[in-house]
Amino acid sequence: MQAQFYGGPLRWGCLPSLSRPPGIASRSLWGRIIDSQHRLAAAPNSTSDSFPAGSRHFSQARPLQKCPGILFHSRNVLLNARVTPPLAATGLFGQNRNLSLFRSKSATSSPVLRLAKIARLEADADTHSHDVARQVALFMELASIDSRTGYQGIVSRWERMCEFDPRSPLLRSDIAFELYLTSLIRLGLPQSVNPAVRRREALLALPPPDPTTHETPVEPSQPPSTSEVIAQRVLSNSSIKLGVGRALLNDSPAPPTLGAVAMASRSSGDSTGSSPFGTRGSSGADPVHVVIEEPRSAVWMRLFRFILIAAVYGFIALTVLAFLLENSGLLKAGRQSMKYEPQTGSGVKFSDVHGVDEAKEELSEVVKFLKDPTQFTALGGRLPKGVLLTGPPGTGKTLLAKAVAGEAGVPFLYASGSEFDEMYVGVGAKRVRELFETARKQQPSIVFIDELDAVGGRRSGREGQWSRQTLNQLLTELDGFSATEGVIVIAATNYPESLDNALVRPGRFDKKVAVPLPDIVGRTQILAHHMKGVKTDPEVNIQVLARGTPGFSGADLQNMVNQAAIQASREGHKVVGLKEFEWAKDKILMGAERKSSYITPKDKLMTAYHEAGHALAALYTPGARSLHKVTCMPRGHSLGLTQTLPENDEHSVSFKQFSAMIDVSMGGRIAEEMIYGKENVTSGASSDIRAATNLSRRMEYGFSDKVGTVYHGDSDTTPPSPETLRLIDAEIQALIQQSIARTTKLLESKVEELHKLAQALVEHETLDKSEVEKVIRGEKIRQVEEKLKSAAPESSTNLTDSKPTRTSAPRPQPVAAA
């Protein structure tokens, strides 16, 4: 049976002679070889070639797994070896490939046979652990291969013997000890020689073991002092000089362990992780505990890797956290305190303000007080503490405040109501305090608060206390200084109805000055003032321009003059003529022409009929506003536009004028229905219907006998009952139906004029009132070439490249002066 066990490994040892046979990679064959090796290691030592079947030696032996490292190593070498030429051409191992695992002293010796011999010796040594002759034979065979693997096997077996079997008779063998010291020298550990000597001497000093436990006689040992002699001889025979060897014997660190030997092997460049000889642990009750010491370089590398990874993840976490906090606003500190710098020498005088003569007279009293306060205080009077300017946007409220400061020659502090509104509680009140503290330091001075309704709105019980802090602080500052301090507060608002009653009461804002839209005289003065620096044509009549711009504010007039000057410069004119002023006025009133928008001829004609209906209703309806211009070209957000203007400034509207406005609004839809039929009426009249409905609703409040003289539009009053709402809706419907009947009758009597005006609009696109009247009378107007030549080129876009599109934007209602 033992011969059969030996057959597998021996036959495997002969496989390399076949120059990588096919069976070398077979896993099933490899498993059988390993199983045979285990059984061979478990079998007792016997000189017979076989054991009887069913012998109990197999069950009594320990499976020690004898030296699989040799077979593993040889198989890996052969698997990684390249295929050599045939045996006849290259010999047994080939002429170009040496498969030996160790340096061979003879070129003809087989490395696999030597491996098999070492495996057999190691198996015998493991089986007879106290047989000194077998142990020494294994040591000598491992040393004969002269490689680090062999020396590591000797060192590991000796140190394992010293650790787990300190009474082993092998410890007294000088030959084995000399081979162990030689292995240490070969492994580059000469400093471990002296500790090894001391360790052996200490173990030899122990009581001898029981003789009955030895399987073989113990080799006679020399006196313990011979260990040093052996060490000296080994050091002398090595490459280390005698002086260095004596120094190593006198001073050396602790004896090496298995881990130290392995680490020395790795540090010297050996890629083998562990020795295949004797490095495996013993089985059964005597396990081998191996402690591997980690090199210092690996510790530093792991620490550096940990720090690097922690730094990267920390940076990412901090970046994400900062981004979230920045967006949430938690890291943002409150806005820094605003420094209100007084503005001196603004250069604005009352002579620069036009169209608001009454407001200038009211504010002249403030100027006199700032120049000479004693004139008012001598008789016991006092000047109002605050002045509130109210009026539409662009009428010159801020300009008036600057003019007061310029006339009085005092510092002027400006603040907007929105500046006091902040997300942090208390910031608005703090800024109010800072504003008035700066004003007191610069007194006499003027504090101007624009858009007062942003901070001085009415308070309600639904608001929190924090939302009223700014207003409360403003109320305190307005009532907290005397009239002789020389600080005047001027505020402006477009919506005085929304201000808190406590803010506008006497004692805070005593004087309320209205700044309305300028009349024709004021518009003439404003136009003359803004046209001083513009080179205008002498034929331009300012009064004509003023008469044609009702409802324009001072800012609108300034914008019109500026737009006209820019247009003249674009066209290359040396002066600004009436044509540029008319172009600028139409652009403000009706919006810019969209010449790049392509309209199909069918849609253009339908738009022309729609606008012609508006124009005829404006011409022939009593009480209607005067027709200004009519166009079928898209302007602003509309496809076409009919513009009407009042002859003079209007301050009130009569029932007749309201009815005329509704008739003009419904004229476009009625014209479409007359020409194209009711089923083809478009949604272009949606804005006209909305305008007519709003006008009718306004007329019901005082012009309807059924509804009565009752106002239902204020949200603060009690809402009307459902019956009243149905009555109001019925009256609105009745007014619109009456308007439709009147306008239909008018346009049916003017069908010829309707066709003429629509065709003229298609041809000329834009007509003013005089041209509309000529078309209705059948007179000739300017040709298309003259029209295009005189028109202002707003865009050079090629219309043929545009895609046809139909806009359904609603047409605006006729503009009425406020």
From TrEMBL:
InterPro entries: AAA+_ATPase, AAA_lid_3, ATPase_AAA_core, ATPase_AAA_CS, FtsH, P-loop_NTPase, Peptidase_M41, Peptidase_M41-like. Residues 206-228, 259-285, 786-818 are annotated as: Disordered. It comes from the Eukaryota. SUPFAM superfamilies: FtsH protease domain-like (SSF140990), P-loop containing nucleoside triphosphate hydrolases (SSF52540). One of its GO terms (cellular component) is mitochondrial inner membrane. The chain crosses the membrane at residues 303-325. Residues 793-810 have a biased composition (Polar residues). Its cofactor is Zn(2+). It holds the Pfam family AAA. Residues 265-278 have a biased composition (Low complexity). It is found in: Membrane. One of its GO terms (biological process) is protein quality control for misfolded or incompletely synthesized proteins. One of its GO terms (molecular function) is ATP binding. Keywords: ATP-binding, Hydrolase, Membrane, Metal-binding, Metalloprotease, Nucleotide-binding, Protease, Transmembrane, Transmembrane helix, Zinc. Residues 383-519 form the AAA+ ATPase domain. HAMAP family: FtsH. In the N-terminal section; belongs to the AAA ATPase family. In the C-terminal section; belongs to the peptidase M41 family. This is AAA+ ATPase domain-containing protein. It comes from Rhizoctonia solani.
